[in-house]
Design brief:
Strand content: 25-35%
Number of strands: 11
Structural class: alpha+beta
Radius of gyration: 36 Å
Number of helices: 4
Largest sheet: 11 strands, mixed
Shape: elongated
Strand order of the largest sheet: 7-1-2-3-4-5-6-9-8-11-10
Distance between the termini: 136 Å
Mean pLDDT: 81
């Protein structure tokens, strides 16, 4: 009688672990599925982040800051019978440093000097290096004419598919050379690199009531350039 009772007790103890083992297997399976689900979710987030970064952030950053540009324009005063004129220039835009560097080669039509130009928006200054004279001229930055780096970059990117900017017009600004600049470092590092070792003068804008003709500018030099949707003719004259 006792032996039978012991045997039954042993059988009962041997049957108890089965539900626990099954529960462990179920828990492990749940953990595996949960882990796989988390991995899939993380991978989805990674690919989504890459997509957003590629198509929304990278496209807003300048991939290229060097442009070779050309513009067609009409000059009714100096070339009324020549029709459209061409102006070419190389533009380098530095958005983070907040300045623009422009190189104007020798123009095809003549009457204008080749030049290197820097628009420094940090210092609020513009420097013209007249390559023909090998002299520098510095003046306060005219933000009504010169587009900021980001805006100019967006303009050039939008027209990059074509060779030329849309046909446009020309305006004129006249300036007078005043005092000689001796302390070049006060002009900032960008203009310093451009004008170091060259005669440098301050400029003062003259309020132009009308566009001056060539006969009136015997002691003047012209630089034609564009940093906007129109061409600017900068006339730099000696102080009389």
């Amino acid at each position: 009688m006792r032996a039978a009772q012991w045997t039954i007790a042993l059988e009962t103890k041997g049957e108890e672990p089965a539900p626990a083992v099954q529960g462990r297997r179920t828990s492990l399976s749940g953990v595996c599925y949960l882990t796989m689900g988390l991995l899939v979710l993380l991978l989805g987030l990674v690919f989504a982040s890459m997509y957003v970064y590629r198509y929304f952030f990278i496209t807003q950053l300048p991939r290229e800051s060097v442009f070779h540009c050309g513009v067609l324009y009409e000059d009714s005063l100096y070339s009324p019978f020549k029709g459209q004129l061409e102006l070419h220039e190389d533009v380098k835009i530095y958005i983070e440093e907040n300045y623009e560097q422009i190189n104007v080669p020798v123009p095809q039509f003549g009457g204008s000097d080749p030049a290197d130009i820097i628009h420094d928006f940090q210092r609020g200054l513009t420097a013209y290096h007249d390559i023909t004279l090998d002299k520098c001229y510095v003046i306060e930055l005219n933000t009504t004419i010169v587009m900021p780096p980001r805006n100019l970059w967006e303009l050039l990117v939008n027209v990059k598919k074509g060779t030329y900017l849309p046909q446009t017009y020309i305006i004129q600004e006249e300036m007078i050379a005043t005092e000689h600049v001796s302390d070049m470092e006060q002009l900032g590092s960008f203009i310093y690199r451009l004008c170091s070792g060259k005669e440098t003068y301050r400029l003062k804008r003259r309020n132009a009531r009308r566009r001056i003709s060539r006969r009136e500018t015997g002691n003047c030099h012209r630089i034609r350039h564009f940093e906007n949707t129109f061409v600017v003719e900068t006339v730099i004259c000696k102080k009389s």
